[in-house]
Amino acid sequence: MSLAKPDAQDISSKQKIALTLGVVGLFILSLALLNVDFSNRGWTLTASLLLITEGVILFANDAYLKKSKGIKNDDVWFKSLSSRGLLGWLTGIVLTTFYIVLYFYPHLLGLGKDGNPNTGLVSLFDPLSNLLSGNPASQWFVYGTLYTVAILVFGYKFLLKYRHNRYEQIRTISVMFFQLAFAFLIPEFMARLNSDSFNLPYYDLKNIWPLNYYNFEQYRVDDFISAGNIGLALLIFGVISIFVITPILTYKYGKRWYCSWVCGCGGLAETAGDSFRHLSDKSLKAWKLERWLVHTVLVFVVLMTTAVIYTYLSYDPEKYWLTKGIFLALVAAFLTLIFTLVMVFKRKEFGKDAQYGAIGYFVVIITLIGMHYFSSDTKLFLLEAETLRASYGFMIGSIFSGVIGTGFYPILGNRVWCRFGCPMAAILGFQQRLFSKFRITTNGGQCISCGNCSSYCEMGIDVRAYAQKGENIVRSSCVGCGICSAVCPRGVLKLENDSMKGRINPTEVLLGNDVDLMDLLNQK
Amino acid sequence: MSHVVIIGNGISGVTAARHIRKLSDKRITIISSETKHFFSRTALMYIYMGHMKYEHTKPYEDWFWKKNSIELKQAYVKTVDTSSKTLHFTEGDSLQYDQLIIATGSKPNKFGWPGQDLKGVQGLYSKQDLDNLEVYAPNNKVCKRAVIVGGGLIGIELAEMLRSRNIPVTFLVRETSFWNGVLPKGESEMLNRHIKNHHIDLRLNTNLKEIVSDENGKVKSVIIEETGEETPCDFVGLTAGVSPNIGFLKNTEITIGRGVKVNRFLETNIPNVYAIGDCAEQQETVGERSPIEAVWYTGRMMGETVAQTICGNKFAYKPGYWFNSAKFLDIEYQTYGWVFAKPKEQHNHFHWKHPDDTKCITIEYHKLTNEFKGINTFGIRMRHEVFDKWLSEKRSLEYVIKHLKKANFDPEFFKSFEKEIFTTYNKQLTSI
After folding, report:
1. Last residue of one domain, picked from the residues B280, B310, B340
2. Does residue A448 sit at the B interface (CB-CB below 8 Å)?
């Protein structure tokens, strides 16, 4: 039954030269990692990053510009790198190792301890960091720079690959811009404003709570408040981002406005991760796991954040109106409001999931009440809020989003974190499923069930299952990357924002068959 | 509990099975000798090109069949005894049915060319064809050149597949221009150029005379009828259309012509025996449709319809307006309603083509009433629903052109061409 895997086409000599350039660039970085001391770090870093950039650009030019515009997925399942072959596993192991070192052993990268100057790889980035923020580099600056370079150069590759598709192009320029400006440059420049009396926390403005799970921790809130009007504005922006801006934009455009146009995690997945999008698991099992996991993370982050804020608020309303008690009551009231609205207006659409939603809701509320009665200043029940925060940071913030989320790109696909772990995606997805104009429209009876859409869905949605029934795709996990529509050979799928009416349209018989039969079976 | 047996696990048979399961608790068995599970034939090309793996072509996960109590049997039906309602398999066993659905699809046409059964000569229809293609044309070292005979939809797909592995392709097309029995001149000629741009050696007006064997019974070359030229090659793709795959019915009571003869209820001459999909031949054609329709969605619709009939809600097969789609290398094609290669009597064509030579539309309309009859669209996606409605409402050519934006289905931010099309329309109008 199975065929021996055919060989992928050999890469051209130009591509080999390009690869060599890129590898030399990476090699320079690895020399720095091994503590080779370069006399001129600024130039060495520039040379290394330029080599990597030039390598990717040359490679992409040769791979795509010589061919006609159109879908370029030839050999995807034959290439070792993109089909979980040896190269794929090796890349996965290298990335995973990098993340483990980055999160847990940054001194191995050369981060100076206790005020000592940086060495190794981190010190190589000192000149650039000095130039931008006036401070020496940290391991996070190294990571941020490489992350940004990756989004920019692989974004360029993606732009060439989809140069027949303006939706893909504009979307990609958007993620490249947000990464470069909002995630990288602006926070570094903001750091320049800091002095002894004025200290803004590092703030990537597009990084919204709960993705940015630490945004409302005490040290940050203290910083915000101490930084006067600007700080207060940023704090308020942080709050309205999730409670006002997000719902409005998600209602109008679906969660894609964030996940595949703005978000940094999404940005990396869509650019550097594009070669691995087909590796996502499309089985029903994976979908079930996804729903449990991502919502559990959401409940976790809500409780954790509530607990953390709770611990630093006071009991005394004289000091500040927002006391522990009032805060808990507000959280409970807000959740109750959401829960009631959904149950009243969307119960039908929610179907069987209503029970799970109800269970989740009650668990949270009971915990909140428990918090109120059984907690001390720093403890919630018996757990320290700090312990809760630290375990979230470790398990979700580091292991899930970094080590697994990105390290496993070549094994599990490029959106593992976004699909199974991201609490922001869970909130946006919940809105997208129930309160949004966004859907992927299926074009009548044109689907031929070929399965390109499902294969290339990075979120593991079985798009074909809907398309072949003539049904629109309205799924909470859809990030609106638009690739299903792009790879469809028959023009069946279109991402649209249209009215809520008729958005979800289950059909028994597709357009094109006998009108009487359609009337009989589709009118329910 | 009556037993419905379906021969063939393609889109027709599987759709019938799914709908029968929805409507009843009848015992259902699907028989196929091709593969254990239903897969999408239309995706075979993507397996060869490395876009997908075989497992991705299966629209339903493997647990689906058991969960819906649809039994699967991998076997080849040798013959059908309709008097005792029994199927006999090549392995020697047999199976009783109460109702039989024949959904065996097509096989590639062979027109008696010398050498047509040599090794390395094949069509592209089944999973086995794909497996053989991997044997005879895995790369451009084993297969230094491939020749494709027959310029239709499968021919151009096969050419695209072989080119994805850098195998040189000579494409023999009998007609004066690619697929011009179906497509109007402007479109067909645009595709000729597109094919050549993809480095495919397209030979129009060219017939195959003979396929020459080497000493091992494998293809060595082909000889061209018109010039007598001999082209060395390691693989020959026969893609001159398909015909119903019904050889096993020859000595049965079931009436066959080119396909299994059915009435509008998809019933054969034998009670409780039905035929659907590519292998069915309508005794009475539906509108302009051909009596045998080898199209994905007609198979699906016949499956939807026959399930109603079998479950006691007798329904005639009454497809709506004709539509179809395909992809020619990088150019997508859709059609709604009827556009003929040459306008029908009393009809005219309106044609617009983009200067970049990859997008065009042709609208067929009635000369006197201006009624819109159908549209072919290349490189621009259109909405099925909208054209279905406009056809029902018998809209005029002018109305369609003025409201074309409503029918656009291209992704967001794509450049649209309604204005250019409207300008072209106005110019043609004033020049008449």
Report:
1. B310
2. yes
Share of chain B above pLDDT 70, in %: 99
Query: Which residue in B has a C-alpha nearest to residue A489's C-alpha?
Result: B327
Give yes or no for A172 touching B (CB within 8 A).
Answer: no
Asked whether the predicted pLDDT for residue A521 surpasses 90, the reply is no
Contacts with A451 from chain B: Cβ below 8 Å: 40, 43, 46, 52, 56-59
Contact B413 A73 (CB under 8 A): no
Q: What is the CATH number of the domain that holds B98?
A: 3.50.50.60
> What are the chain B neighbours of A514 within 8 Å (beta carbons)?
301, 305, 315-320
pLDDT grade, residue A2 (50/70/90)?
Answer: very low
Our CA-based measurement puts residue A388 at a distance from the nearest CA of chain B, in whole angstroms, of 40
Instruction: Based on the fold, state whether residues B172 and B69 are members of the same structural domain.
Output: no
Helix ranges (DSSP H) in B252-350: 296-310
- B318 is a domain residue: no
What is d(CA B294, CA B243) in angstroms, rounded to the nearest whole number? 8
ipTM: 0.95
B316–A contact, CB cutoff 8 A:
yes
Query: Residues B222, B248: one domain?
Result: no
Higher pLDDT pick, A6 / B162: B162
Report the CATH number at residue B349.
3.30.390.30
Helix (H, G, I), strand (E, B) or coil at B311: coil
Task: Kindly state whether residue B138 falls inside one of the protein's structural domains.
Answer: yes
Looking at the structure, do residues B353 and B412 belong to the same domain, yes or no?
yes
Q: Enumerate residues 207 to 246 of chain A having a beta carbon within 8 A of any beta carbon in chain B.
A: none
Write down the pLDDT at residue A270: 97
Q: Which residue of B has its CA nearest to A447?
A: B297
Indicate the DSSP class of residue A79.
S
Mutate to test the interface with A, among B19, B41, B51 (most CBs of A within 10 A): B51
B363 is a domain residue: yes
Give the pLDDT score at A10: 77
> pLDDT confidence of A507, banded at 50, 70, 90?
confident
Report if residue B201 sits inside a domain. Answer: yes
Q: How many domains does chain B have?
A: 3
pLDDT tens profile A471-494? 999 999 999 999 999 999 999 999
Strand partners, B77: B89
Domain boundary among B279, B310, B341: B310
pLDDT digits (tens, 9 = 90+) for A389-433: 888 888 888 888 888 889 999 999 999 999 999 999 999 999 999
Report helix angle A166-177 to A139-161, nearest 10: 170
Is residue A372 within 8 A of residue A328, CB to CB? The reply is: yes
Q: Which residues of B touch A3 (CB under 8 A)?
A: 47, 54, 130-131, 134
pLDDT of residue B310: 97
Kindly state whether residues B58 and B126 are assigned to the same domain.
Answer: no
Beta-carbon neighbour count of residue A451 at 10 Å?
28
As a whole number of angstroms, the distance between CA A3 and CA B231 comes to 29
Give the pLDDT band (50/70/90) at residue B376: very high
CB spacing of A514 vs B305 below 8 angstroms? yes
CA distance B133 to B142: 11
A192 contact B CB<8A: no
Q: Verify that B303 and B327 share a domain, yes or no.
A: no
Residues B185 and B233 in one domain: yes
Nearest to B319 among A8, A495, A514 (CB): A514
The reply to whether B132 and B160 lie within a common domain is yes
* CB-based contacts of A357, cutoff 8 Å, min separation 6: A339, A342, A350
Q: Domain range for residue B158?
A: 121-240
Q: Do A446 and B52 touch (CB under 8 A)?
A: no
CB atoms within 10 A of CB A85: 16
As a whole number of Å, the end-to-end CA separation of chain A is: 43
Mind listing the domains of chain A with CATH numbers?
Answer: 10-67+105-190 (no CATH), 436-522 (3.30.70)
Pairing of strands B70-74, B77-81: unpaired
- Cα–Cα distance, A190 to A200 (Å, whole number): 7
Percent of chain A predicted with pLDDT > 70: 96
Q: What is the pLDDT of residue A3?
A: 46
Q: Tell me, yes or no, whether B223 and B287 share the same domain.
A: no
Residues of A in contact with B128 (CB under 8 A): none
